[in-house]
Amino acid sequence: MNIGAWTVAIDPPHAEEDNDGRITLVVEGTELGFLLFIACADATVWIDTIEVAPGLRGNGLGTRLLALVLALHPGRATGLAAPTAALAGWYARFGFVPAGPHGVMRRAATP
Fold first, then answer.
1. CATH says 7-107 is which class?
2. The N-acetyltransferase domain covers which part of the protein (predicted)?
3. Cα distances (angstroms) measured from residue 95 to each of 3, 7, 11, 45, 68
4. Are 73 and 41 in contact (CB under 8 A)?
5. From the CB of residue 78, how many other CB atoms can be counted at a distance below 10 Å?
6. Per residue in 91-104, pLDDT tens?
7. Mind listing the pLDDT tens digit for each residue in 45-70?
8. φ and ψ at 81, to 5 degrees?
9. Nearest-CA neighbor of 79 among 53, 105, 56, 100?
């Protein structure tokens, strides 16, 4: 599958998802990955889930999803919980720093 040509959909979450928004990457009608986010009352954007199809991990799709949510919410702080040390290292590349127990990480608001 050529992942060079992709479509982005920014939609409300699915009925079973308890979030404010869903960003989906689609190629040739197939969902390759998605990101769920919550826009918090304190102006923080909380990244709830980033999921990429198992056979396509390592191709930059998660990076694209993360870059999209950050671009959609400029100037807002961002938070998430990294479930593993490897993912914490990946998020650190985007400016996230440890901010609490259970893998909580935050990225400061940028102008």
1. alpha beta
2. 1-111
3. 26, 26, 26, 14, 15
4. no
5. 23
6. 999 999 999 888 89
7. 999 889 999 998 888 889 989 998 88
8. -120, 115
9. 105
